[in-house]
Amino acid sequence: MTEKMNPMIANLKKNPSVDAQLSEFVNSEATKGGGCSPDDAVRKESPGKAFLDLPKDLIERVKSIAFEGDFKGSRDFFRFSTVNRAFAHRLQSNFSAGQNQSEAAPGSTGHVRPEMRVLVARLSDSPLGLDNVTIRDQHLSDADFEMLLSGFERSRSVRRICLEGLRLGNLRFKQLVNALSGLNTLEELSVAHNFLTQVALPDIVRLIDEHQQLSILTLNSNRLGDDGVKQIFRSLLKSQAIRNINLQYCGISSSGIAIAKALMNEMPVCPEVNFKFNDFV
Fold first, then answer.
1. Fewer CB within 10 Å of terminal CB in the chain, N or C?
2. Residue 187 and residue 242: Cα distance in Å, rounded?
C-alpha cells in the first residue's frame, strides 16, 4: 500500500509560492508534543531537522539560508528563500532544550546543530546548491565550524557569504580562506566583527588575489590598522574586480588614509571605499 502524502506537502508541490504554509508545516513538525512559544522547555526537534525531512524537490528550491541570533544569544533565527523569492519565509526557533550546545564558546568541541546540517547539505548539493549564506551573531562550536568549512570546500555555486559577529579570530579566518580557495563563484564576502588583527593580513591579501571575481568585501570592525590598509590596497592594485570595500572601525589613522588614496590614484578603476569611524575621524 502506498504511503499517503502529507496534504501540506502535496499542496506545496502544486503551488511553491505558499510560503506561509511551508513555515507552518516545518514549525508544526518541530513542535509536536510541545507548545511553540519561546518559553517551552521541550521541543520534538528543531526546524532544521524538520526542513531536512521535506521532499528533496522542495529542498532544492532553497537558494539562500540565513542563520542568525541576537546579541544575547537567547534566540536563534533560521530562514531560507528561493531564487524567485515567492517561496521566501522566516522560521523562528528557541533551542531551550539544547541551549548549552547551541551557545558553545569558540574553541569548544560542541555538537553540530541541525540547522548547520541543513546549510551544509544545501551548500554541497551541486549543481543546485546555495547562492547565499548568512551566519550572524553566533557562537560556533568546533564541530559546527568544521562542518561549515567542509560545505564551502564542496560548494560550486555560492556567490554571497556573510559571516558576521562570529568571533572567528585569525586562526579560524585562515581556515576559512583555505576552504574558499577552490570556490570560483564568490562575488561578495563579509567578515565584519570577527576579532581579526594584522596577523590575518596575509590571508586577506591571499583572498583578494585568489578570487578575481570578488567584487564586494566587508572587513569593518576588525583591528587592521595602517599596515592593514597598505597591504590591502597594494593587493587591490592587482584586482580589477573589487568595486566596494568596507573598512569602517578598523583603527586606520590619517596617515593610513593618505597611503590608501595614493594607491587608489594608481588604479585604473577606483573601488568605492568606506573609511568612516576610524581613528582619523
1. N
2. 9
CA distances from 69 to 76, 77, 235, 266 (A): 4, 6, 34, 42
SS3 77: strand
Tell me the CA distances in angstroms from 132 to 17, 46, 194, 235, 245, one per residue in order. Answer: 20, 22, 19, 26, 19
pLDDT digit string (tens) for 74-108?
344 445 443 323 332 322 232 222 333 333 334 44
* Cβ(120)–Cβ(149) below 8 Å: no
Assess contact for 217 and 274: CB atoms under 8 A: no
What is the C-alpha separation between 69 and 57, in angstroms, rounded? 28
Q: How far is the C-alpha of 136 from the C-alpha of 73, rounded, in Å?
A: 11
Beta bridge mates, 81: 64
Task: Look up the pTM and report it.
Answer: 0.76
Q: Which of 222, 234, 126 is nearest to 173 (CA)?
A: 222
| Cβ atoms of residues 250 and 278 within 8 Å | yes
> Using one digit for the tens of pLDDT, what is the confidence trace for 233-260?
999 998 879 999 999 999 999 999 999 9
User: 9: which 3 cell numbers?
Assistant: 506537502
> What does the pLDDT look like over 11-57, one tens digit per residue?
656 654 434 445 555 544 444 433 333 333 233 445 566 666 667 77
